[in-house]
Amino acid sequence: MFVNEHGSMDVARVEGWVVLTQTCDIVNFAEGRDLVAVAPLVKAKLGLMQAVAKGTTPAAAQLENSPGENLVVDLTKLCAVQKKALAGMRRAIGFNSDETRCTFAQTLESVRPLRISRRPGLMDP
Q: pLDDT tens digits, residue range 80-108?
């Protein structure tokens, strides 16, 4: 659920959710470690699809087993949810090979959300 440009909640643009947290971190339960990172799966315009295919944007990534056409993982809208929220969701496998899974992971490494800056109010470069 997102706040759109008009200030109201908008879920129509979300086609699904992609779990970004590693499986080992999801299945291990420890106090204070009950959150997982997710990102929305959204319809992309042609320009973004081309940039994702070329690997020239850190804003989005592609799933090998996308549930629809022109869908990308929007890495600009990462969020955390409680692990128990995943229990009621249908699981789908996003990748068939370690190679494509690693390519996706490398894309995630280029995204630096919520880095704490030494200069208040500014993001580190």
A: 888 888 887 888 889 899 888 888 888 87
Residue 34 DSSP class: -
The answer for residues whose C-beta is within 8 angstroms of residue 111's C-beta and 6 or more apart is 58, 75, 78
Going by C-alpha positions, the residue among 80, 83, 73 that lies closest to residue 108 is 73
Distance in angstroms (rounded) separating the CA atoms of residues 86 and 36:
9
The rounded percent of the chain whose pLDDT value lies above 90 is: 12
Q: What is the pLDDT of residue 72?
A: 92
Q: Is the dihedral of CA 96, 69, 15, 59 positive or negative?
A: positive
Q: How far apart are CA 125 and CA 115, in angstroms?
A: 10
Residues 6+ apart with CB under 8 A from 67: 15, 16, 41, 92
If one counts every other C-beta atom within 10 angstroms of the C-beta of residue 31, the result is 5
Half-sphere exposure of residue 94: CA atoms within 13 angstroms, side-chain side = 21
Overall pTM > 0.90: no
